[in-house]
Amino acid sequence: MKNILVVVGSGNRNGNTDTLVESFIKGATESGHHVKKVNLNGHIQGCRGCGACQKNGHHCIIQDQMQDIYELFEAVDTLVLASPLYFWSISARLKSFINRLYAISTNDEYPQKDTFLFMTSGSKGFYAFEQAVSFYRFFIRALGWHDKGMVLAGGCDKEEGNSIIDEHYLKEAYFMGCHLK
User: Fold this and answer.
1) Which tens digit of pLDDT belongs to each residue from 59-109?
2) Which region holds residue 168: left if phi is over 0, alpha if psi is between -120 and 50, else beta?
3) Which of 26, 80, 112, 144 could potentially form a cystine with 6 if both were Cys, beta carbons 3.0 to 4.6 Å apart?
4) Between helices 65-73 and 92-100, what is the axis angle to 10°?
5) How many of the other CB atoms lie within 10 Å of CB of 138?
6) Rounded Cα gap, residues 113 and 41, in angstroms
7) GO molecular-function annotation terms (predicted)?
């Protein structure tokens, strides 16, 4: 059984990104895995680059939503990062989360993790996601983590306040959740 942390960097509750990760969560929980989902809707400040975390036992001195997430992070072996594509990159919320992982990046108490990337975009085609995927790959490689898959859902839209995401992407995310090893 896996302990999975799903981090959603979208401010749109019940939007396309949320819909996509819910498919993954459904598959994972049906397969017996434990899943905790965190919406980055609280205030997460950016890393100040002060270095206090590296001198202070890997504890970030900034008191915000990240303090709760650090506690969750210790117990998970799988991390799912989810974001809409904003200007060819991940959302600022998710970027702040990733930057703040610097506090624990050199702490051996946090073991290597399996990771997934889930993204949505109104644009179609992989080229739209290139920059975000490149950043994701570099980031996980730097921490020694392992990519286990991506769902890059292009062509998403909204109509009358409702999310529109191709069923193919939802099935792909569900399948990934069902077949975690």
Assistant:
1) 899 999 999 998 888 889 999 999 999 999 999 999 999 999 988 887 666
2) alpha
3) 80
4) 60
5) 9
6) 24
7) oxidoreductase activity
Residue recorded with tokens 């609280």: 42
User: Which residues does residue 81 pair with via DSSP β-bridges, in sequence order?
Assistant: 7, 117
What stretches of the chain show up as alpha helix (H) in DSSP?
Answer: 16-30, 52-55, 65-73, 92-100, 130-143, 167-178
Whether the model pTM is above 0.90: yes
- Total number of domains in the chain: 1
C-alpha span between 135 and 164 (Å, rounded) = 26
Angle at 24 between CA 14 and CA 179, to 5 degrees: 175
Residues spanned by the domain of 64: 3-178
Q: List all residues 6 or more positions away from 73 whose beta carbon is below 8 Å from its beta carbon.
A: 5, 79, 104, 110
Instruction: Give the pair of three-digit tokens for residue 70.
Output: 């650090």
CATH of the domain at 57: 3.40.50.360
**C-alpha closest to that of 177 among 27, 50, 3:** 27
Structure tokens at 104: 């624990």
Sequence-separated (6 or more) residues with CB below 8 Å from residue 160:
none
